[in-house]
Amino acid sequence: MKEYDKSARARSVAVWDLPVRLFHWLLVAAVGTSWASGELGWMRVHFVSGYFILSLLLFRLAWGFVGSRSARFSDFLKGPAAAFEHLRELRSSGTHPRPVLGHNPLGGWMVAALLLVLTVQAGSGLFTSDDILVDGPLVPHAGIAVVKLLSTVHRLAFNLILAMIAVHVAVIAGYLLLRGENLVRPMLTGRKIVPDGITVDPPSQAGLLPAALIAALAVALVATLVTVA
């Protein structure tokens, strides 16, 4: 991997589109709300938050195929060799690998894993029951064994989510402290700083109208699922 001069003059390049940034921060807020409402026993808020998370995940799944280039799974899900190569570069002190505009090979798989676990968590919540007062909207359509299994999955999976979030935050802090790379700012501004003289191909940006239509369809699908069922 070609190294670059960190002292070179930098320039700003568009990386993350508005839909991806909104998805990211809305998901952060929704997961926090789900955790707090579950701990406090605010089950109506908990269910609404879960439906919102499921809508966000459906949107992100679709946007991963038709959205801006940096948002597409094909752009950041690389093979094991790319992930190990990036890990080797991170462990090599004194070297500065070429900037990655979107998710790096390791970060891409972390994002995919987190999305998968969140989908399992939100989906299993539709089938959960405490056997007393609280039933998910799809409980009447599942057998007792399935409800018990998915209720257990829903209860335990959040511990895995918390662990993955902790790792995610620790990695972000590590990149900032050890590599001098701020991964949060681009998710706020949509732009990333790269040194002048480095040839990069700014990702293509998809329009807001397709994103709005996909988001509306995702919300409608979830609303139909939980009300008609």
Task: Describe the structure in your own words.
With 229 residues, the protein is mainly α. The chain contains eight helices and two strands; from the N terminus they run βαααααααβα. It has helices at residues 18-40, 43-66, 73-76, 80-91, 105-125, 144-179, 185-189, 208-228; strands spanning 10-14, 191-195. It has a two-stranded antiparallel ribbon with strand order 1-2. It is globular. It starts with 9 loop residues before the first strand and ends with a helix.
- The ordered H/E elements are EHHHHHHHEH
How is the main sheet built? 2 strands, antiparallel
Amino- and carboxy-terminal Cα gap: 53 Å
Radius of gyration: 20 Å
Largest beta sheet: strand ordering: 1-2
Tell me what portion of residues adopts beta-strand conformation: under 5%
Strand segment count: 2
Relative helix content: 55-70%
**Low-confidence parts, pLDDT < 50 over ≥5 residues?**
1-8
What structural class results from the helix and strand content? mainly alpha
Outline of the structure:
With 229 residues, the chain is mainly α.
Provide key terms for this protein.
229 residues; mainly alpha; two-stranded antiparallel sheet; 8 helices
Write the layout of secondary structure elements.
Layout (H helix, E strand, L loop, with lengths): L9 E5 L3 H23 L2 H24 L6 H4 L3 H12 L13 H21 L18 H36 L5 H5 L1 E5 L12 H21 L1
Antiparallel strand pairs: 1-2
